[in-house]
Amino acid sequence: MLKDEVRTKSYQNAIYQNRHIFKDKIVLDVGCGTAILSMFEPFFHYLACITPGSEQVLSADARCGVSLRFAFKAGARHVIGVDMSTIIEKAREIVQANGMSENITLIQGKMEEVELPFPQVDIIISEWMGYFLLYESMLDTVLYARDKYLASNGLIFPDKATIFMAGIEDGEYKEEKIGFWDNVYGFDYTPLKETALTEPLVDTVDLKAVVTDPTPVLTLDLYTVQPSDLAFSSPFTLDVRRDDFIHALIAWFDIDFTACHKPIRFSTGPHTKYTHWKQTVFYLRDVLTVQQGERISGMLENKPNDKNKRDLDVTIHYKLETDDESRAAKGTCNYKM
Length: 337
Prior knowledge:
Elements: H1 5-16, H2 19-22, E1 26-30, H3 43-48, H4 67-73, E2 78-83, H5 87-97, E3 104-108, E4 121-126, H6 139-149, E5 150-157, E6 160-168, H7 171-177, H8 190-197, E7 201-203, E8 215-221, E9 232-239, E10 244-257, E11 264-267, E12 279-290, E13 295-304, E14 312-321, E15 329-336
Parallel strand pairs: 1-2, 1-4, 2-3, 4-5
Antiparallel strand pairs: 6-8, 6-10, 7-12, 9-13, 10-11, 10-12, 13-14, 14-15
Helix pairs in contact: 1-4
């Protein structure tokens, strides 16, 4: 993840280009991992302004990743990172190696269980996103931190996330992944074909494979979203760009830092530079034979799994809107992430 330049540079720019926002602030980093983001925040303030007995700036989470270093260099007073993982032991070594131990405090534990040294924070920063935005994400932890610690006029970095969908031609790979089970060394393994269809694939998709215009299906405002909003049903319409076949629908997300002086955005879609999130591919039962100007309408349903809330149950209803009855198709697919 540290090598993911799209992700890391976006956070770096959001912090470095907005030092006036971070200066002298208490910052809570939800997800500090190896401590890179938090170390971005208070460094320049530390060189010029830190005095004995000054207040601390908070950077805390269950996965404190790159945010410690970024927060430290932007002028925040003190950064506290909280992480459940033992990676925090290495993060402490990294902080010490960079001479920041006096200004960055790391706490191991769950965000929901640790006790923070400040009743409120001015800024929450977090890299909470999972595959398909919500799979194994830490959004619920960020929302907990927001409701418990963020000041009434506080800021969240980033504060907006949007999921997009599109249709793709992917016959060769679908045959390799799904059709494989029709004949496995001369045996009928089709009972496993159903299982394969229910497992979304996380992979990079060539932009040339995209057959439809993209459409947004969910936008989250982190200032107002509630945990209950993560179970949703969203209608969608995909406009077909060219005559082709559609074997799957894909999803990706864009992230916005709207609190910045100049808004910053990065995308995980097939049209942009690679990110470790890639795209999520949902193979359809049918092969849709589409023509330019037609539409695919449908409904995307998502909810956290009953047994593990970081897993997802996804249902996609789809219908090809065409005047050609020989190509008409509709269906429903259930997926588990």
